[in-house]
């Protein structure tokens, strides 16, 4: 793991966007794995700036998002589909047909998981997967568990994730389930970029950096990936030496 520490979230946003830009210049039809949540917002802002100044285009890019809530419409203001359009897709020249999401309302979750796996394979695999991390060490919505997962599946969100994300839903109780890419699907990405900011992430980061690989700390699996960059701000790196 290539661990890099930055002053703050803004600096990570610039550096993470640079990694994406380098790839898009080399491979304009790259397959990007994308994440939602607060952490990647500065990265997306910088990517929009780079698109606006003409240094990158998303015209031939294909994207796969990590996860989507179950039980809310994809056009709901809190869906990850809406989040991605508001924070990136509506501001760049990506084609709607190149945007891929898991369907949180699929009638058959196993068939939906197979569909997503086949779509990723047909696109040639994910070139660069962006990840945030939960305070409990989750990546995508792979919560601490007894075993690592493989392909996408329907997950019951843990109380820790509900406590972190309820704020986005205001008074409406947030969904208890989501469809998420599995650990295997994430690990098959050619390159992974995990970004983490704030002291709430410091414990999960410390456990990941310790090198012990355990499904109780899902992000620790990244120790087994050959090409992973970890970008931390000083607060998220606060417990590592
Ligand atoms: C989002 C996702 C989650 C988040 C994580 C951190 O697509 O898969 O794993 O990356 O919950 O969220 P924030 O960035 O809001 O702290």
Task: Tell me what you see in this structure.
It is a single chain. With 241 residues, this protein is an alpha/beta fold. It has a single domain (2-233), classed as Rossmann fold. Helix content is 30%, strand content 17%. The protein has seven helices and ten strands. The chain has helices at 9-26, 41-52, 80-87, 109-122, 159-165, 183-187, 202-209, and strands at 2-6, 31-34, 62-65, 67-69, 99-100, 128-131, 153-156, 177-180, 191-196, 228-233. The strands form two sheets. Strands 1-10-9-6-2-3-5 form a seven-stranded parallel β-sheet, with helices on both faces. Strand 9 (191-196), helix 7 and strand 10 form a beta-alpha-beta unit. Helix 1 (9-26) crosses helix 2. The longest helix has 18 residues, at 9-26. The protein is globular and about 40 Å long. The model has no long low-confidence stretch (mean pLDDT 97). The chain binds fructose -6-phosphate (F6R). Residues 35-39, 66-67, 132-134, 138-141 line the site of fructose -6-phosphate (F6R).
Largest sheet: 7 strands, parallel
Approximate shape: globular
Rounded mean pLDDT score: 97
* The level-1 CATH class: Alpha Beta
Itemize the secondary structure elements and their pairings.
Elements lengths: L1 E5 L2 H18 L4 E4 L6 H12 L9 E4 L1 E3 L10 H8 L11 E2 L8 H14 L5 E4 L21 E4 L2 H7 L11 E4 L2 H5 L3 E6 L5 H8 L18 E6 L8
Parallel strand pairs: 1-10, 2-3, 2-6, 3-5, 6-9, 9-10
Antiparallel strand pairs: 4-8, 7-8
Helix pairs in contact: 1-2
The structure holds fructose -6-phosphate (F6R).
The site of fructose -6-phosphate has 14 residues, from loops.
